[in-house]
Amino acid sequence: MYTFDANNLSAKTQYKILTGSIIPRPVAFVTTQSAESDVVNAAPFSYFSIVSAAPPLISISVQRKEGRQKDTARHAIRSKELVVHISTEPIVEDLNKTAATLPAEESELDRTNLTLAPSTYVSVPGIRETSIRMECTLYDHIEIKDEEGTVTADLLLAKVVGYHLSPEVYDENTGYLDARAIQPISRLAGNDYSKLGELFTLKRPE
């Protein structure tokens, strides 16, 4: 067993250990809109999870690059709106293209075959080709700082105000979603992703 003092590790080493250990991670595909130009930005984020069901909150951590806030965080904080999609196999190639670093006035979607769909509860549009999308408002924004007080990430807590679920993945009779039909993809370390693997059931103790 290797033992490391986290205080003595570089940020790069911390990243390798954390992203290589906490796997698989679901990938949020997020659209936001610029207040200045109405450009719709889209980007994937694997620091993504559920926070609460009452109220319905999800979390997305947007890492800063050299202290600079990314478009997704900046737009969501200013407009207080975003749309979060579940990343799936059918769109993974296009999704990967949106991870490119582009000027703020250029939409990542222009490099893909994905199209926009109007939202019902927020002004930011979503992605038509996704099977699950959640329209959200910003519940809270928390700046994550390092030991020197430098902001390294923007933690977004988003409140879901509306769901769009494809009939292929949602059973209206039971209220459950079909994991196999969703075909979710998840993030590993480096350039690696994974598909949904073998499923098993384990009943919780009373």
TrEMBL record:
The keyword Flavoprotein applies. Keywords: Flavoprotein, FMN. It comes from the Bacteria. Its cofactor is FMN. GO terms for molecular function: FMN binding; oxidoreductase activity, acting on the CH-NH group of donors, NAD or NADP as acceptor. InterPro entries: Flavin_Rdtase-like_dom, Split_barrel_FMN-bd. Belongs to the flavoredoxin family. This is NADH-FMN oxidoreductase RutF, flavin reductase (DIM6/NTAB) family. It comes from Terribacillus halophilus.
